[in-house]
Structures are given as C-alpha cells and as structure tokens.
Amino acid sequence: MNFATNLSNYFLLMEDNIHCSSNFITNIKRALMIWEGRPWVIMEFSKLGFTGKLCHSSDLPHLASFFLYYQSMSPEKLFPSFYKMLAQKNAIQFSPSLFHPIDFPVQEGNFSTKKHFHEIILKPKDEFLEMDFGKPDNPPAFIYTDMQIFKDYLPEKAYSLEEDFFWALDPMEGNHLTVILKEPTKIRRVQIVTGSEDDLVFLLKGKVELGYKPNDNANNCERYILLGTLQNGKFDHKMLSEEMENKASCLRLVVTTTQDDWIVIKHIKIWVA
C-alpha cells in the first residue's frame, strides 16, 4: 500500500470477485462532502472484509506497518484498533452497501465443500443495494421546466405514475425539469428513465440533483447537491443513510449537452423514507 501514498488524497481498499453498485464513485464523493471539515480515519462502504474501506492516502504507511506488526491477525479485524488509535471513536459506516461478492462455485480441489465463495471467505453475506423498495411514492409536487414542450405531452406526465411521458424538443445545455415537493421529504431512492425501448430518443447527457430550502418566488431551491449522472438515458440512485438525514424539497434533472433532437422522459419516480 505504501506505493499509493502520494498518488491521490484517498485510497479505497478492494478485494477480488466484487461487484460494484452503479454510481459508487459518486456515492463515495458525496460521503466525503458530508464529512468535509470533520475528522475521520476510516470510512466503511461495505461489511465485506477489506472491501469498501476508505482512508486518507497519507495514513497508508501507518496502516501497512500496523498490519505487518499484527500479521498473525486477520487484517479486517484490525481496522477498529487502527482508527481508534488515531482518535476516531466509532465506526463510520454507510448503508446500503456499495459492494457485494460475486458468487461462483468453489472447486473441491481447493476446498472440501461445494458452498459458494462468499459463504466461506466473505462472511457475513452483505446487504447490497439491489433491494426491493416496493412501489414508488411520488409525493404531491409541482413540476417546472424550461424545455420546449411538444403538444400536450406535459412535464407532469413524467412524474405521474400512470403510463404516460413528457415529450421535449431540442433540449439545450442548462435546460431543466424540476420537481418541487409540496412538503419537505426524506427520500430513499430516485429513478429517472428517458427514451423508449424502440427508439434512441433518450437524453444523451444529464445530471440529477437534490435540492433544499425551497424558494417560493423562483420555483426553485436555494441549495443543490449532485446525486449523479444519467447512463444511457437512465438514472437509479439509492440514498446513503447520511443523505437521508435532511428532508429534501426539490429534485432537478439538468441537461448538460445540447441535443438536436426530441427526447422522451418516461418517468421520474421517488421513494420516500
């Protein structure tokens, strides 16, 4: 680990045969923003051994020496002693997990069992992001956009839980579709789908932001944080536990590249805590 000391500000410990959740880098960046200005030594984004442990790169020489000194002990059991030694009193854990094990059959030549790899090596089995959230809630809200609307395919139709959609013409960089919740709400999950299954009429590039402190005069919020970016016209984000501490008032989809074509926004779905 010493070689990485001067390569970056932070170092993420990972193991083999791990599947990463979508937008895991964005989630980690957001956790760092939440903890900005507060001291920490180790952040944990998974319960799986080494995997998902984040530390300051400047601490790597100390961590490597600590592991070497106590090499008879399992390294993952040493993390609590290490961060307590550097004045972090309690574990800083984020949930749901951003990483989970990839299952594959264990060969009898290597192990005397046919159980899956994670049942032997990666206990406990982790709680991954792909959990059942049930039906979306879509609490009462006002919908605003500065995109050019085609006929009666209004932006409200994207937020409706009915089978309908919003149709916009030639979206330009900076255009937005903003959901203003009537009451501030703790949000568990956000999902946005643009385009159709048959035609490439999705938003090529866009970002999704969560807003706080509604501004009544501007139909907007005073402060936004980035949740992530669209991938192939789709976005699905499950909130970290610390992101749910404050109630949000706005959800905003922002066009980040001008597009000389029409787009369809099929649905915007919100699950509340």
TrEMBL record:
Q: Which InterPro entries match?
A: Glyco_transf_54, MGAT4, MGAT4_A/B/C_C
- The answer on whether this UniProt entry bears the keyword Transferase reads yes
The UniProt record lists the MGAT4 conserved region domain at 1-103
Q: Where is the MGAT4 A/B/C C-terminal domain?
A: 143-266
What keywords tag this UniProt record? Glycosyltransferase, Transferase
Pathway(s) per entry:
Protein modification; protein glycosylation
Checking PANTHER family in the record gives:
ALPHA-1,3-MANNOSYL-GLYCOPROTEIN 4-BETA-N-ACETYLGLUCOSAMINYLTRANSFERASE-LIKE PROTEIN MGAT4E (PTHR12062:SF11), N-ACETYLGLUCOSAMINYLTRANSFERASE VI (PTHR12062)
Protein name stated in the entry: Uncharacterized protein
Which organism encodes this protein?
Monodelphis domestica
Query: Mind giving the lineage of the organism this protein is from?
Result: Eukaryota, Metazoa, Chordata, Craniata, Vertebrata
